[in-house]
Every structure is written in C-alpha cells, then in structure tokens.
C-alpha cells in the first residue's frame, strides 16, 4: 500500500507528512542535545 493511498486527498500528502515528520524529529533531537548539554554542564 502506497503512502499516498493511505493518506487520502483531504488529508496530508506524503511529501507534507514526511516534511512534518522530519521537522518534528529535528526539533526533538535539538531539544535532546540542548538538554544533554545543560545536564552535563551542571553535573561536572
């Protein structure tokens, strides 16, 4: 089953869904790195 069949016309297209997913992933990774930097700075 293709992703465009799964996401119907009134919903997101596959490209939009992939863009939103990768933006969300980048935000989560950036937040994790910032949290890691803050915690390692306070521990040491």
UniProtKB/TrEMBL annotation:
Keywords: Membrane, Transmembrane, Transmembrane helix. It comes from the Archaea. The chain crosses the membrane at residues 20-38. This is Uncharacterized protein. It comes from Natronolimnohabitans innermongolicus JCM 12255.
């Amino acid at each position: 089953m293709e992703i465009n069949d799964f996401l119907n016309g009134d919903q997101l297209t596959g490209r939009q869904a992939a863009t939103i997913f990768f933006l969300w992933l980048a935000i989560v990774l950036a937040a994790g790195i910032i949290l890691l930097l803050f915690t390692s700075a306070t521990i040491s």
